[in-house]
From TrEMBL, chains A, B:
It comes from the Eukaryota. The gene is SLC9A7. Belongs to the monovalent cation:proton antiporter 1 (CPA1) transporter (TC 2.A.36) family. The keyword Membrane applies. One of its GO terms (cellular component) is recycling endosome membrane. Residues 36-488 form the Cation/H+ exchanger transmembrane domain. One of its GO terms (molecular function) is potassium:proton antiporter activity. Residues 635-649 have a biased composition (Basic and acidic residues). This is Sodium/hydrogen exchanger. Keywords: Antiport, Cell membrane, Endosome, Ion transport, Membrane, Sodium, Sodium transport, Transmembrane, Transmembrane helix, Transport. Its main location: membrane. The lineage of its organism: Eukaryota, Metazoa, Chordata, Craniata, Vertebrata.
């Protein structure tokens, strides 16, 4: 009995020790992030622009990785070999361990190959810093992707919808197959030279193609934002990268689904190919539907309840519904990340209009913080993983081949598709824009998450190492080279804003309230321009959305009584919210211009402003916008309801004067 | 080889299935929370006040628990017995499993006793809904506790600091020992009757005393807020419950530390007792220091950098630093939850003053949402656990004994201490207040988390079941009875507000800006009153804090040059921020009145208002404050810097008129 008590104590001690170790690991990452934040602040403060926060996070991660690997003497780790016990049956998720009559429950963590067993013995600490890869998919990616969907700038996104979809779907598929086939050539070459010691199938190459096709130009976009580069180019790049993540992730799972067809695997099999295509379409449309449906449900809930009186409840509901999309999709074996993306887009398009003013701010800020933390965490983890991941396989031929392949893959995505798109586009994608899109093909969080998800086989480990190097190279070199590249390609535009101040005076009770609002650019021209320039598909969708969906799902939009045919009168009256009648007139012109991301306001209306005033002003037009991602932008209210309010309370003058940025 | 591939596929399928199951489980909770939010909204909308959101969450949790337990036929679960393998050595954290040459890694989940093995076989689903108890301690409690610290209403908290500390430290210790000893009597009785089949030591009883001493009057406080009950009573209850959680958690770990002293355990041992007291003091002061230090570090960072230009970075830093407190404390074997509490208080006292206006909102809203979600999650989990937890031990004698013991324990905390406190207090704690404090001894999240942390032994399982029932009973019965109780004790006060409108006109550029601000109650009298009524200890601390700490750590407070003796002139000039000189005059009076929780503004100044105008007005004074936790309250700005701004820009009139609530 005394023995048992001592043993129990030992177990407790060990559990405590393990908990402490976990705390230390997390603490390492938090200190890394803190350091990153402080350095970012210093960079922003001193206007250093060649290194983005994600690049910085990677550098700090690298440093800590080096320290963990080489700096700490390995004697301080627990270096005992875990005991092993054998079983005839296959691996099970739960295992009971019988230690002299007492039972302990164990859960499966994963398979480890012979090389790794050595590592298990060698270095407990480095293994512990390594997270479960599913953490990336289930915890860190969803907020990043949701935020991307929630902050899609609608006007320019929809204006270029056709091109964006072409690049994202067709382009990613082309890129995937080009990279896959090129890498298969590289693999064959390696086998011929004798550099490849283990199996590497064709499907593995295709899988690598899918991983390496997920672009993430976060660095480039941040610089675009700061330098006010062309808005259409921004929309193309941002839209492509957002949708392309979804395509790449679904593509990778359908390639995995391609594999097992009898014993004769790993050669081309038509039926398996069509099965894969079916899987792709099934997963994609299923995830899309799931995201859209939960978005619409949230919109309906916020439409029919008066939840906007309680912003805390509203925000919590919004957060929970968006998260449930992810879980729902995962529970139905669809792809949660894709569902969350479309949920974000739907929430931004409908629910956002029903939220109280405070909740719109709250939800945006909440997801902004989550996105910021998750993204920087992933990038600093990448830096760390280069030194702490235990199964790197550096194969120079494979790496060089991969670098060539991704450039060729990107080129065969952008240039041919741009050519075909330009045949149909009124507003052509110029050669310089194409070069810039080519240049902005950075790889980031999604490629990393896809690569780390499965590192069980030799082939996958080699892919992981290569992907990591690709991310480092593209983020540092291409990310850092964005500013010179923009200048070189003459994309960086000179800036001149038209600022409209509206001063309105209202008599409320005995008090005279004055209200000064800042609006950018003449909106009405913008609105009509959108409609003219859009493709017919978009116009069709726009009309349907504006006339039927918006009035049913949100408090904005025209009343249904005016859009539905006369025979549906009673139904229309029943579904239309009282607010809709009041705001009918104002909304017709403004809601197509609705900009969600306040921070990009000047950017979005910029082209309109320039056409009205001509390019003028100094060269460095960015000073005033340096804090663009931050609070200053709150000064520019751009919601339906707010616009309405100004309209109704304003009896004042409209002062229009061009403001040149601090040149 | 074919076999191996099939086997691998089977493992993958199983892992996928397990992931799906996890998603479904989380989804269940999210739907529960969604349902709770919608019902809360309905209740708030219809002004139903007898059931608080936490009580509601428990009811929904109970319903889902019943469905999971009895509604779903058990045939759809996996009912296979996990294979077992035996080992001679004690349990280890990592185990390797050798299945025909392939190695799989397993991690220890915990010990299971003989009864549970049966359950492992029986019902996989119910087991899966059961979370790892550490989730409560490491993920859900920290945001709740931090939020409590961050939103401590400073003025009334400090005014009653002595009493609060007495109740929290001495009171909780008394309550713990009274309950522990009474329960030991009950256990002896059960042993005599033959109702107790397993071991139940004196230390177990004391541990139960610590668990059951953690009060959580969240329901009562919410109603206080809505009904504007007495502010001092509110401060006493809130302050006590916040600190008392910290005391209870440290108390429970020092009781655990008491146990092992040779073979003759479980009898009184003086050396072990003093060791326990030492552990208590060590853990408590260590955690306190850790929390205070990270808070001060954050204040210094925000003081010396100009991070407030970038609210996103600022918020992220604030969040990370606060979280790192928790991890740091855990890594040093202190108590993270306690550290987080004091970190929250420090952040609110210092860092808050350095944050940009947007960040103050952001941080408050962020932690508000996290707190809301975590709290409701815990309460709905409690409901669920009553039916899904597999090892309940319902012992009628123990339960009845425990109910009696907690009331006696609470009574021997409140009444004697109040008597002694009243000897020294100028503002006595009346009999009715004492009854109300007695009545408000609800048990909640902390008691539950402490009880579920360890349910390995028979005694602990019995405690867990009993704690769960205590929480249910107190939250529903006492929480629901708060409103009648307040009326019955005549604590519910009639309300009459003094509203001060300040209309200020400023000429900025060519525009006339008018600014209408709403302020409640005359602040200056309040400020001096605070100083008069406070204990000497507090006055000493206040002077030191106001004259030295605030100027060093924040941009508010008087310049150091005026507070430090002349000889320290150069140092003082070097440490004083330029802003400090500007705001010198205004700040002297206002910062002691700084109210953090905007929602409670009217409440806080209410007593002042009443003394000035006398009680008048109707009976139901709550209509206008119904949305108190929400957005409306943003109208009342109460930060140092804002107060300053009003002061400097106001050249206008001051209209003071009493406003009677919609009677």
């Amino acid at each position: 009995m005394f023995d048992a008590a001592m043993e129990e104590l030992a177990t407790e001690k060990e559990a405590e020790e393990s908990h402490r170790q976990d705390s230390v690991n997390l603490l390492t990452f938090i200190l890394l992030l803190t350091l990153t934040i402080l350095t970012i602040w210093l960079f922003k403060h001193r206007r250093v622009r060649f290194l983005h926060e994600t690049g910085l996070a990677m550098i700090y991660g690298l440093l800590v990785g080096v320290i963990l690997r080489y700096g700490i003497p390995s004697t301080i780790y627990h270096n005992k070999t875990p005991p092993s016990c054998s079983l005839k049956e296959g691996p099970v998720s739960t295992l009971l361990l019988n230690v002299s009559g007492k039972f302990f429950e164990y859960t499966l963590k994963g398979e480890i190959n012979s090389r790794e067993i050595h590592n298990v013995e060698q270095n407990d600490m480095l293994r512990k810093v390594t997270f479960d890869p599913e953490v990336f998919f289930n915890i860190l990616l969803p907020p990043i992707i949701f935020h991307a969907g929630y902050s899609l700038k609608k006007r320019h996104f929809f204006r270029n919808l056709g091109s964006i979809i072409t690049y994202a779907f067709l382009g990613t598929a082309i890129s995937c197959f080009v990279i896959g086939n090129l890498m298969y050539g590289v693999v064959k070459l390696m086998q011929a030279v004798g550099q490849l010691t283990d199996k590497f199938y064709y499907t593995d190459c295709l899988f690598f193609g899918a991983i390496a096709s997920a672009t993430d130009p976060v660095t480039v976009l941040a610089i675009f934002n700061e330098l006010h580069a062309d808005v259409d180019l921004y929309a193309l790049l941002f839209g492509e990268s957002v949708l392309n993540d979804a395509v790449a992730i679904v593509l990778s799972s359908s390639i995995v689904a391609y594999q097992p067809s009898g014993t004769n695997t790993h050669t081309f099999d038509a039926s398996a190919f069509f099965k894969s295509v079916g899987v792709f379409l099934g997963i994609f449309s299923g995830s899309f539907a799931m995201g859209a449906v939960t978005g619409v449900v949230t919109a309906l809930i916020s439409f029919f309840t008066k939840l906007h009186c309680f912003p805390l409840l509203e925000t919590a509901l919004f957060f929970l519904m968006s998260w449930s999309t992810f879980l729902l999709a995962e529970a139905c074996s669809f792809t949660g990340v894709v569902a969350v993306l479309f949920c974000g887009i739907t929430q931004a398009h409908y629910t956002y209009n029903n939220l109280s003013e405070e909740s719109t701010k709250r939800t945006k800020q909440l997801f902004e913080v989550l996105h910021f933390l998750a993204e920087n965490f992933i990038f600093s983890y990448m830096g760390l993983a280069l030194f702490t991941f235990q199964n790197h396989i550096f194969s120079p031929i494979f790496i060089v081949g991969a670098f060539l392949a991704i450039f060729i893959g990107r080129a065969s995505n952008i240039y041919p598709l741009s050519f075909f798109l330009n045949l149909g586009r009124r507003h052509k994608i110029s050669g310089n824009f194409q070069h810039m899109m080519m240049f902005a093909g950075l790889r980031g969080a999604m490629a990393f998450a896809l690569a780390i998800r499965d590192t069980a086989t030799y082939a996958r480990q080699m892919m992981f190492t290569t992907t990591l190097l690709i991310v480092f190279f593209t983020v540092w070199v291409f990310g850092g080279g964005t500013t010179p590249m923009l200048s070189w390609l003459h994309i960086r535009e000179i800036w001149c804003k038209v600022v409209v101040f509206r001063v309105s005076f209202t008599l409320k009770g005995d008090n005279l309230l004055s209200h000064v609002s800042l609006q950018d650019g003449p909106q009405h021209e913008g609105g009509s321009k959108t409609k003219q320039e859009s493709a017919w598909l978009f116009r069709l969708w726009y009309t349907f959305d504006h006339n039927y969906l918006k009035p049913i799902l949100t408090h904005s939009g025209p009343p249904l009584t005016t859009t539905l045919p006369g025979c549906c009168g009673p139904l229309a009256r029943c579904l239309t919210s009282p607010q809709a009648y009041e705001n009918h007139e104002q909304l017709r012109d403004t809601d197509s211009d609705l900009i969600l991301n306040d921070g990009d306001l000047t950017l979005t209306y910029g082209d309109t402003a320039i056409t009205a005033n001509g390019a003028s002003g100094g060269h460095d037009g960015t000073r005033g916008e340096w804090g663009g991602i931050n609070g200053k932008t709150e000064a520019a209210p751009e919601r339906d309801s707010e616009a309405r309010e100004h309209e109704t309370t304003s009896r004042g003058t409209r002062l229009v004067f061009p403001v040149e940025d601090h040149a």
